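Narrative of activities, Objective 1.

The group set out to show that a structural description can be obtained from nothing but a protein's sequence at a throughput compatible with the screening campaign. Below is one input-output pair from the validation batch, recorded exactly as produced.
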Amino acid sequence: MSRKIVPDVISGQTLQKVTPRENVRAAAKMMREKRIAAVLVMEGEKLVGIITERDMTARVIAAGLDPDTTVAGDIMSANPDTLSPDDTAHDAISMMRKRNYRHLPVVDGTRVVGMVSVRDLYAVANTELEQDLKDRNAFIYGESYGVAN
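Output recorded for this entry:
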């Protein structure tokens, strides 16, 4: 999978973000409304962390914290690993597997341009497998030699 993260895997995303001072309930509501499993935590345009569903479960619910008084900065994964737009889907999968991530922010220099998820990468891999099968069938059945059925 040599496709680049931007634009082959993600492009034109609207960033879903909260500040470190917003309460956890606001982040959870955003995740529900947008049907996403992670949000960026940003100070202005600077990425300072990420909050995922797993963070909500382990750091809020299991810890017995109040989502209305607990702030994003208290439960976020600070200074998250990131990908660059030029990294490949393979790079993303490799980092996700090694570090047990399901989401990675994509940063171009200091500017956040998106978030890639394991689901995004699965979609790319699935598309590549389907194309590979079509190409193999074309070869096996002679279509690539101009002998169509």
